[in-house]
Task: inverse folding
């Protein structure tokens, strides 16, 4: 394959990954690394570097569109970013110390986990739940626009959510993904933040988390411009498109389809990691 | 929550959103220019990312990347675009410090400063 063919193909796949990632809130990174390493036979370290860069592009590119909808909560985002950026530093320093087989295996497990949680029905944020005292002190509770006007929500289980975020940051730094699934898990399941608020706030945080490990990756030589270029441009285009149609789309079937793809990629990653091919 | 605060929050978020988008579009533009040069010069070479070699030293740090950009190397220009991209969320965090200070929200100024120092540590600690 020539550089031109490779770039066009990778750009097309990245566009689809970015689009579906934005629509499901799971991010494109989670499928990009397996896609690049399994089908394009790219060394997983290059794949992780390129994916990490695209994760920043996705997050920052879609932010403007999300912000206008008024869903994201800047305080929840900033408070949790303390956890995710510290985790990201830990993850990025671990990435240099573990073998590529181990990274592939961890990746497979994370993919399975993402698929499982993308299938889980959304917890309906309990409107009547008493607020967590931490949430009051930290001013995390907020409102968002719903079909029948402004809806208020109370944030629950703040310490548990914060700890999960640290883990999400570490995975992001280790695997070069946005850890969207784990972030949504922390916000949706633990902190009981309404789904659209957690998706958009998580999107907002992903770029900051990825930037925390990107500097480490760049200086370690994991970010190859020839690979990162088509990946970043493709994912960015896809995610901008996705953010445009997010608000008016019903994503149930898309999530189902995406989780099937994720499970298949997970099995491939586990097989390749365990057999020492990656 | 007071309506005045909600409005201020929304305004900060709007500025942030636009800042992020401008940063990303600028970086995408730089990456595209670099990509065009790279593809024009190397488009027909065979591709090989199977074996990890690590990037050459000049593509790993700011000074080397700027040197390559001045020399109009496609790969250097792409890398410059990627540096701009990494700087975008960092700029967003820096702006949030200002935003929370405007709101006199001391607690969140401190939180944002913590995040900002972690980001600086990661960039400076690694170069």
Result:
């Amino acid at each position: 394959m020539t550089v031109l063919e490779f770039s066009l193909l990778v750009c097309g796949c990245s566009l689809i990954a970015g689009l579906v990632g934005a629509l499901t809130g799971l991010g494109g990174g989670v499928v990009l690394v397996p896609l690049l390493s399994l089908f394009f036979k790219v060394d997983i370290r290059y794949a992780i570097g390129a994916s990490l860069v695209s994760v920043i592009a996705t997050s920052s590119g879609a932010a403007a569109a999300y912000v206008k909808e008024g869903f994201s909560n800047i305080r929840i985002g900033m408070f949790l970013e303390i956890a995710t950026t510290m985790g990201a530093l830990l993850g990025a320093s671990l990435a240099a110390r573990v073998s590529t087989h181990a990274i592939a295996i961890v990746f497979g497990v994370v993919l399975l986990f993402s698929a499982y949680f993308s299938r889980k029905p959304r917890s309906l944020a309990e409107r009547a739940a008493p607020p967590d005292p931490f949430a009051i002190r930290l001013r995390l509770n907020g409102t968002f626009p719903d079909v029948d006007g402004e809806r208020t929500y109370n944030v629950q289980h703040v310490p548990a959510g914060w700890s999960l975020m640290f883990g999400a940051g570490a995975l992001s730094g280790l695997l070069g993904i946005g850890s969207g699934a784990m972030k949504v898990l922390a916000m949706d399941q633990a902190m009981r933040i309404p789904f659209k608020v957690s998706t958009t706030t998580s999107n907002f945080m992903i770029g900051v988390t990825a930037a925390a490990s990107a500097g480490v990756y760049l200086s370690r030589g994991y970010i190859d411009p020839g690979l990162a270029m088509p990946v970043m441009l493709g994912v960015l285009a896809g995610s901008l498109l996705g953010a445009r149609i997010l608000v008016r789309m019903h994503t149930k079937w898309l999530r189902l389809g995406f989780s099937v793809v994720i499970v298949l990629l997970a099995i491939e990653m586990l097989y390749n990691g365990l057999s020492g091919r990656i | 929550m007071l309506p005045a605060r909600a409005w201020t929050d929304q305004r900060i978020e709007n500025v942030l959103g636009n800042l992020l988008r401008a940063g990303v579009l600028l970086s995408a533009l730089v990456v595209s220019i670099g990509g065009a040069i790279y593809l024009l010069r190397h488009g027909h070479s065979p591709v090989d990312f199977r074996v990890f070699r690590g990037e050459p030293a000049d593509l790993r740090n700011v000074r080397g990347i700027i040197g390559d950009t001045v020399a109009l190397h496609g790969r250097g220009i792409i890398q410059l675009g990627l540096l701009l991209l990494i700087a975008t969320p960092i700029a967003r965090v820096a702006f949030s410090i200002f935003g929370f200070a405007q709101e006199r929200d001391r607690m969140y100024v401190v939180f944002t400063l913590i995040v900002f120092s972690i980001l600086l540590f990661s960039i400076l600690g690694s170069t």
